[in-house]
Amino acid sequence: MTITTETGRLDKVIADHFPDISRSQAQKWLAAGLVTLGGKAVKGKEKVAPGT
């Protein structure tokens, strides 16, 4: 997924982009290392911006 409109914490951006996913579920995925940026697992507190 490419962020196109939002800036902020990755867990919130994921939850906002996928209405069926809660922020809590996004945080669990992040904690388990299931979400990556540039091929590296990231934490929910990671800040993202458009184009990330």
Give a quick summary of the entry:
The protein is of the alpha+beta class. Helix content is about 35%, strand content about 15%.
Low-confidence stretches: none
Domains, number: 1
Mind telling me the C-alpha Rg? 10 Å
What is the first-to-last residue Cα distance? Answer: 9 Å
Helices and strands, in order, run as EHHEEE
Describe this structure in words.
With 52 residues, this protein is an alpha+beta fold. It has a single domain, classed as Structural Genomics Hypothetical 15.5 Kd Protein In mrcA-pckA Intergenic Region, Chain A, CATH 3.10.290.10. The chain is 33% helix and 15% strand. It contains two helices and four strands, in the order E-H-H-E-E-E. A hairpin with a 2-residue loop joins strand 2 and strand 3. The protein is globular. It starts with 7 loop residues before the first strand and ends with a strand.
Fill in the keyword field for this structure.
alpha+beta, two-stranded antiparallel ribbon, two-stranded antiparallel sheet, globular
Helix and strand arrangement:
Layout lengths: L7 E2 H8 L5 H9 L4 E2 L2 E2 L5 E2 L4
